[in-house]
User: Fold this.
Amino acid sequence: GPGAPLKLLRVSRLIPRKGGDRLIAAMRLLKNKPVHLTLVGEGDAAAALKAAARGLSIAFLDYVRHEELLPVYQSHHVFVLPSHNEGMSNTVLEAIACGLPIIATDTGGTAELVNLNGLILKDNSPKAIAAAIGQFLDNPGLIASMGRLSRRRAEDLGWDRIAAQYLALYARAAGKPGLAP
Assistant:
């Protein structure tokens, strides 16, 4: 409802090339706005990112088993991945299949996944990321309209099935040590 925060999600390893520092700096620029960020993942940059996030509306979920990610995607509004470089991101694929709009940098295969179902950043400066987040804050209707386009994109390309298969595959692999998904 009114005053409820815009809930941003990033699922990614906490390593420098994923641009977490830029995303946290963007959150600092939006400090007085109703926006909350959840960072899911582990990695070498975790301690530095947690220190940088102090005092901001940012939550860290260090480890979420893959088959438990679905409700995490579904309880957020927008998926943000401002990586410095990226291949075809599975997490972007999954977010699209879950009907989330995407904010991402123009890297690797990501721009091909994001057409009218999100915003492609010209650069991953904190200012550019904050401006993209601001578009969703100023036009909350974009969340639903772009989210619908994400779902449609997933269905067109059969990605919803692919994502469901990923989730099933990971679920089967869970708890079986040494079995690569």
User: Anything to note?
Assistant: Residues 176-181 have pLDDT under 50 and may be disordered. Strands lie at 6-11, 35-40, 58-61, 78-81, 102-105, 118-121. Residues 134 and 145 are 16 Å apart (CA to CA).
